[in-house]
Structure formats: structure tokens, C-alpha cells
Amino acid sequence: MAGMSVHIRTDRLTKIYPKPGGGTLAAVDEVSMEINSGEVFAYVGPNGAGKTTTIKLLLGLTKPTSGTFEILGGDISEREIRQRIGFLPEDHNYFAYLTIETVLDFYGRLFGLIGRDRKKSIEKVLDLAGLADRRKTKVKHLSKGLQQRVGLAQSLINDPDLLLLDEPASGLDPLGQADLRKLILSLKEMGKTIFLNTHDLSDVEKIADRVGILDNGELVAVNRVADICGAKEGVIVKTEPIRDDEYLDPIRVVASKIDTRDGFTFIELDDEGKVVQLIPLLKKAQSKLISVEQQRVHLEDYFKGAVRSKGDSWVGPLPGSENDGSGGGVTG
Length: 332
Hints:
Alpha-Beta Plaits; globular; 332 residues
């Protein structure tokens, strides 16, 4: 597609559900955003923030209560638009008795792919998802991670311009997650747009161009990942443990923070040049310098600053502790 265009545009998109006991819940609350063609946009937030509901709205699987949206420059009700979209749901169930190849053949037929084109597309996605050698394996014999790869292959069968991926790393082991990152980046290089629901902030740092943070249905922040993350002033010096105040006090004059944990002392310096002042103090303390690393800002810090709700985090004493009140933990 020539030049920069907008592949998803929402204007005050809202979805309100009635609560069983009365009242309402705004699952998606006046979300306005634009996703550009060819970018990887990560959509993150605590569980229950409204991420999956947003995807359901964009796919026309549920109707908005108010607000509007455009997808690929048109309306999701248009067949031509739907043909250009790939979707990986968070929970997908394929017929257990079908082979991987048959599952992909079925989805190829749904998209109207015929004969040689369908066969070619199946070969391509099997290769992309790392499933070529397992094509004859039945779904019931696959691990959760391999089933997730089938889902990824299925989402690519129609060679879409826009991919909506809901928790694509779910069930993947670390090697599978690394393969997924490579796949997403290669799809981006092919010019595809990727809208990615995920909890894995370290993955977002590695592959996303921009990130949107959803909290209680509201889009509380949208920013370029490169503008959030990266190096900042200062370094962290890792040394053998220093516990005696006689040696720590002169180090405190130089350092902005000192933390001894896991059998090491970590000394934060706001200026790399202060390492020269620190070395003689370490010699006096008979502590060996192990490493010097640039301080970094991580997406997790930005996320914690933007989100007010607790999600699944513990907000009370641990379950079974003496003061937990009821014998059970409290979750958000």
C-alpha cells in the first residue's frame, strides 16, 4: 500500500454491558486511536481491562454501544475488508481428529482459496509457523504450544494485510516465544500491520513500534516504545557484597542508591564518571567489581505508572497468613 495510511481508526468506541446484579460495566470506554499501516501496535493492560472486547468490536463479533470505527479504510461488514484480516483468538479449539494440514485446508476454503493457490498458501504458513514436519499430526496429539502455532498459521492463511493477535504467546515455551518474535518482525517487513494483545511487556519492548495501555476500559496512554524505553543517565555497578557501614558510608556520598541482595551489592551512580571515584572505595572495602551496566528505563515501569487498577495482583496478605481475615487471598 503506497504511503502511510491508517488501518484501524476508532472514535470514542464504547461497549457497555449490564451487570448481573444491576448497573452497567463499560468494558471499552470511549477509546479513540489510530493504528498505521505496517506497524506493530501492542495493546496491553491488566486482565479484564477490555482488550479482547476491543478486538471483538473491531471484528464485528459484538456491536458498539456508541462510537465508531473504521478498519482497513472501510466497514467490517464488507466482505472485501474481512478477506484482508487475519485473526488469532485467545481461546481457539480445532477439531481434535483433524490433522494440521486439514485444519489449514478448511480455513483456506472458508476464505475462498481454490486449487493450487490454497495448496501454496498452506505450504507457506506451515513453513512460517514451523509446522511443516508435523503437517500430518492430529490436533489431539499436539501440545498447547503447538496448537498455538496452528492458530498462528490459520491467521495467516489468507495472506492478510492486517493481523489481530490475541495473546499469541500463550502456551509457547521460551524458544517458541523467540520464534514468534521473529515471525512478527518478518511479517512487519512484508508490510503487514499487527495489532497485538499481550501481557508480555519484555516482548513488547523487542517488537512493537507503539504501545497503547488500556485500564478499566479507558485508553490511558499511547506512546512510541522507543520514546519510553532505552538508556538513561547513570550506571549500575555490581560488586561483591558490602555490609559494613564503615565502607558503605563513603560509597553513599558518591552513589544515588545502594542495594545488597542475592549475594551482591548494586550501586547506582547518576553519572558514569563517578565509577573512577568508586573504585578506590571498593578496594578499601575489599569488594571486587563484577560489572558496570547502563541504567535503562523499562516498559514495566511506564506501565505501572499508567495503570490504576490492580488486575490480578495481590492487594492483601498472602492466603493462609495469620492476618488474611478469611483464609483466602484478595485479588483485584
